[in-house]
Design brief:
- The protein is of the alpha/beta class.
- About 40% of the residues lie in helices and about 15% in strands.
- The longest helix is centred in the middle third of the chain and has 32 residues.
- The radius of gyration is 24 Å and the shape is globular.
Length: about 425
Amino acid sequence: MNTNEERTKQETVCVVGLGYVGLPLAVRARERGYRVIGFDVNEERNALINDGKSPIEDQYLEAKLPKYRFEATNNPERIREADILLICVPTPVDELHNPDLTPVENASQTVAKNLKKGALVVLESTVNPGVSEEIIAPLFEKEGHTIGHDVFLAHCPERINPGDDVWNVTNIPRVVGAFDAEGLARAVRFYESIVDGEIRPMKSIREAEAVKVVENSFRDINIAFVNELARSFDCLDIDVADVIRGASTKPFSFMPHFPSCGVGGHCIPVDPYYLIERAKRAGFDHKFLRLAREINNGMPEYTVELLQDALNEVGLPLNKTGVGVLGLSYKANIDDLRESPSLEIIKHLKRHRATVHVFDPHIKDQSTVSSLEALLEASTALILATNHREFLSELPPEILKKHGILVFIDGKNAFDKKAYQEAGIVYKGIGR
């Protein structure tokens, strides 16, 4: 057994926050030979994990958790057993899009109060540049810890893509920053032991914080661009999806992004606000990022406007018309509701007094009907908000005609426009 393997066998990892980020990390660390403790305040979640059941719909977790079991607890004293601690709690925004660092601060305080001397603490939660220096480090110092002496602080911004069959916690490259050379070396060594991908050390912890915000701001800006194109091309009678595919034939200097009924998930709709607000405090106004957020936030309402226009074509008002919303999760084939455009679409429909029916095969407990069949029976119009595989295979034009569906709003541009139009259904996509 080599030195690294010996160290792994002897070290204990504590993952604080067993959600979409923390739980796969905990399982992966256990898979690679670490002793693992999971800390989460959610007792119901802990109970499932301790039974070897994943509280999250995820192929990796469903395959690996029963085999690589670990103890999940809400007892903060267990944190003292850990040599390596990973803080993986949410960093949300409020209704006014102001960043809320309360979960990170609370988790950091809990760790700081229950810390083994010499432990490595890695913040995985996405934060704006400066949080580790201005907020996290002082919390540890307040508890009597000296950074770089009896605690080593690092930041490795989470990278996870729910529902991805190729890229997951085992192989996505990572970046790491720390306050000092020893903390950086230890963090890099740990991630190299659990990730089969490049681990890139950054020159500072602030650079590491900036990486994640830049990644998701890049995506947000490009999505906003094609969403604006979609609305423009709808006026110009141009199919934006075909145009993007045409532009994609250029083998350099173009990266395809596609429009939809909105941007969801915990990263893209959230992370830009962290940079916007932090830069504002430093005296800089991110006009471009603010505009991108405004455009993307407006897509659910635009989708409902498309529905109103389509209903006008068949002589129906939105008021009291049965509208079936297909999907609740922000992304296909998962059960993640975070920042989902579906929730905003439903709010706008109810504001217009539509009779709303909702079905998501992955989130049945929050659906308003028991099946896709029941949703079709109750609806006159449909909005595809999530392109689950179940919908893609079970909604041909003849099924919609059979159930008397007059209008179909394809919020993901997932279906053949011509086929539905030829069947006599008013079809509208996003920019097509």
